[in-house]
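User: Sequence recovery, please. Input:
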């Protein structure tokens, strides 16, 4: 890909046409030599063909001066001067005229650095071939010259060479190498974004194609005018320039501007150069910003949908509690035979209604509480209490279910250690009830559930262990997510929603605590809850 570079106005013809001055000086030197020969009374008409041939390389330099950035033009010019040196060697002798081969590297110094080496090699190769051919007698005899004419012609060649060399050195030393279309520069092919260079005086040196397009071809000529007056980020950009100047470190800034005719977002990176100049890389982020905005909108919609769903579940769960409480209450009246005895089958149905209603009420309670947590509406009511009392009361509530399942409950508490904690008493009880209920539910008949609690390093560490069915590593990864159940839960005759451990995890994290599950298939499960003793 051709990397066309837009250049700033150089102002000097030496910068734009470096070959022009040495070529003009050479022609003037030839004209002066002819004039001097004419004044000496020498027949200049006989020498005119030689001087005409000597002027050909300079004339080519004048004609092609505007195209010297092109490779083929540089090669043509160097070969033309080498040919002139060759002609001088053939007509005036190799030994005195080989010095004219210096014109080739002198001319090459006006181009890129590597061209100096190329020019030197070209001149050396041609000179070596001519010398070898002369030594072997392959060259034709030099034409007969009048001694005076020959001497003056050699002198003219030396004078012209000296003038040409001085003009070339002057052009090379005073010329700032311009950034020309098609020239090899530090603008790398394939760089994404606009590239802008400013010199030590903050004046534009050049910009690549993408950079020019970002400003519709009108790239700011001054560094501090990179952003127009009134731009909201102009002050920040100026501060970045000052920071880069002070620290000599690159600075970054994201801006929006409409230099291309459309508002676009750019990441600017301002880099100070060793030459005291500046390099700006402007990467267009407009498409990425648009994609991010779409993703943000989708994320916001998904979050809103999730919130709406959570609020819907919370509302429905709350509304279901009222009729369920009535069902449980009436079924309890029927079970207690408050208004008289019931036939045997109806009494059994009353027990089933009461049991099912109570189970459904517990499930709805879990759904409601989890919905509040997810919606961020579950508010903890902190209180200072003895965690041991809550543990004992929770065990009493679960013991009837444990006795019915023939599962023993063992509490291991240090009676000499106070377990005072600042937490939501109801939430801590709910954590315990869910964990104990799970342990009892999935323990085999005759199994054992152990409850351990102790204060360690400012935390309450509460562990519930059982020797039941246990879980695999994959099941443990799923446990704690809403509605996720292990294999044992799916095979159990006890009904569950899969919300128990998810609610435990959420309530624990609301207190700033952690939940850890360790389980082995067929060997049991241990759940450890760590709660801070003091609220933040």
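Assistant: Recovered sequence (536 residues):
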């Amino acid at each position: 890909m051709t990397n066309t570079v837009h250049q700033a106005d150089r102002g000097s013809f030496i910068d734009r046409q470096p070959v022009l001055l040495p070529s003009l000086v050479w022609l003037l030197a030839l004209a002066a030599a002819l004039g001097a020969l004419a004044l000496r009374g020498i027949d200049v008409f006989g020498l005119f063909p030689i001087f005409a041939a000597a002027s050909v390389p300079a004339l080519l330099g004048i004609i092609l001066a505007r195209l010297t950035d092109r490779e083929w033009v540089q090669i043509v010019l160097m070969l033309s001067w080498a040919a002139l040196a060759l002609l001088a060697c053939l007509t005036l002798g190799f030994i005195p005229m080989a010095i004219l081969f210096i014109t080739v590297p002198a001319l090459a110094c006006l181009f890129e650095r590597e061209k100096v080496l190329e020019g030197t090699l070209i001149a050396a190769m041609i000179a070596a071939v001519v010398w070898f051919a002369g030594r072997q007698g392959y060259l034709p005899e030099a034409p007969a010259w009048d001694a005076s004419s020959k001497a003056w012609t050699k002198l003219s060649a030396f004078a012209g060479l000296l003038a040409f060399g001085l003009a070339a050195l002057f052009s090379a030393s005073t010329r700032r190498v311009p950034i020309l279309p098609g020239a090899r520069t530090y603008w790398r092919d394939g760089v994404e974004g606009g590239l802008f260079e400013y010199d030590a005086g903050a004046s534009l040196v050049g910009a690549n194609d993408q950079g020019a397009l970002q400003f519709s071809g009108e790239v700011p000529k001054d560094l501090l005018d990179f952003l127009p007056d009134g731009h909201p980020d102009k002050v920040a950009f100026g501060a970045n320039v000052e920071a880069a100047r002070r620290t000599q470190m690159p600075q970054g800034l994201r801006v929006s501007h409409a230099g291309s005719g459309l508002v676009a977002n750019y990441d600017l990176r301002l880099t100070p150069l060793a030459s005291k100049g500046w390099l700006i890389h402007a990467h267009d982020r407009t498409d990425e910003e648009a994609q991010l905005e779409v993703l943000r909108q989708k994320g916001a919609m998904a979050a809103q949908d999730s919130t709406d769903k959570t609020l819907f579940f919370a509302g429905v769960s709350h509304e279901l509690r009222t009729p369920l409480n009535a069902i449980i209450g009436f079924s309890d009246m029927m079970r207690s035979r408050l208004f008289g005895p019931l036939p045997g089958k109806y009494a059994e149905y009353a027990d089933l209604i009461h049991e099912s209603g109570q189970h459904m009420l517990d499930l709805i309670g879990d759904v409601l509480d989890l919905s509040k947590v997810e919606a961020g509406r579950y508010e903890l009511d902190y209180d200072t209490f003895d965690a041991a009392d809550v543990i004992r009361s929770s065990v009493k509530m679960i013991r009837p279910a444990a006795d019915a399942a023939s599962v023993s409950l063992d509490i291991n508490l240090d009676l000499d250690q106070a377990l005072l904690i600042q937490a939501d008493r109801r939430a801590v009880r709910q954590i315990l009830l869910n964990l104990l209920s799970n342990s009892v539910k999935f323990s085999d008949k005759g199994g054992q559930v152990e409850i351990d609690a102790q204060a360690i390093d400012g935390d309450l560490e509460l562990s519930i262990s059982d020797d039941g069915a246990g879980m695999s590593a994959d099941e443990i990864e799923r446990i704690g997510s809403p509605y996720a159940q292990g294999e044992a839960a799916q095979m159990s005759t006890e009904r569950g929603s899969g919300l128990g451990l998810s609610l435990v995890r959420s309530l624990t994290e609301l207190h700033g605590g952690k939940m850890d599950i360790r389980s082995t298939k067929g060997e049991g499960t241990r759940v450890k809850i760590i709660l801070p003793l003091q609220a933040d």
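The first helix runs from residue 13 to 16.
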